[in-house]
Amino acid sequence: xxKVGIVGGTGYTGVELLRIMAVHPDAxxxxxxxxxxxxxxxxxxxxxLRGYCDGLAFTDPDDQxxxxxxxxxxATPHGVAMRSVQTLLDAGTRIxxxxxxxxxxxxxxxxxxxxMKHEAxxxxxxxxxGLPETARSRIREARLVANPxxxxxxxxxxxxxxxxxxxxxxxxxxxDAKSGASGGGRQGKVAMLxxxxxxxxxxxxxxxxxxxxxxxxGLERASGGPVGVTFVPHLIPMVRGIEATLYADxxxxxxxxxxxALYEERFSDEPFVDVMPFGTHPETxxxxxxxxxxxxxHRQENSSVVxxxxxxxNLVKGAAGQAVQNMxxxxxxxxxxxxxxxxxxx
Length: 346
Prior knowledge:
With 346 residues, this protein is an alpha/beta fold. It has twelve helices and 14 strands. The chain has two domains: 2-147 and 319-331, NAD(P)-binding Rossmann-like Domain (Rossmann fold), CATH 3.40.50.720; 151-312, Dihydrodipicolinate Reductase, domain 2.
């Protein structure tokens, strides 16, 4: 069994990692850390895990315990992993970082958006951006994987075939995305109270969101050059899920008829991308609790604008599930191990 540790296990991403790993056939959680909850049994905080994580308790971070693991997930706020992973890497432990510490190549941009100096520039250059649909072979060889953000996962997968085939104007990309409240994390915030979120709908970060530079970098890798992207996130009154409605101008409108086949072919071997029939409307409830991204294409009349709808569970394919997918690749396991489950519906 692969021995796994989790640093920062009390948030929504942490409990999703625990839920997935509880039934993973080839790996087990041996340590989970939380400075604030050290000593608390995991099942006291997460009763849904009774019978699966009995005997596992939160502990203070201990470098030796973590170094004894084969893989360690960092489910921590930004700024933590970059100060901590070198010791573990030196011990031969492989890392999947679910924070933003290693997602951006340009550290001056990272520092601008995260408001602090990056303290691990060499590791930032080594880290592999962990979107399996674009970097599977590199992930297999990686010591350190930067797990993508939730919005960037949905946006990149939706735009990917269009940019790879150079079919759209890369300077005019629009991503209109909506997320459930769990995307804001588990810590107490007045703006995230049910009385504040319920029966309301709003945009946020419209003047600039931290996921924008990550989205831009990923789309530039796909297109092979600069892109112009407008990204606007929204908060909607549900617990989990992301829907991204994407818009791009087709260079040659006569190419529209081949787009469905293009998407189906591009993702035909991807276990966690489902290209739906043309003109259908993916629902977030169809991916709730699962690691799937569902995508559908649309066109209005004879417009040259391609409309792509992509849905994911922000806590699974947008976070913990994709992290386990990356771990599976890094450890030579079946990529779908622990993840090949249907979504919850209703």
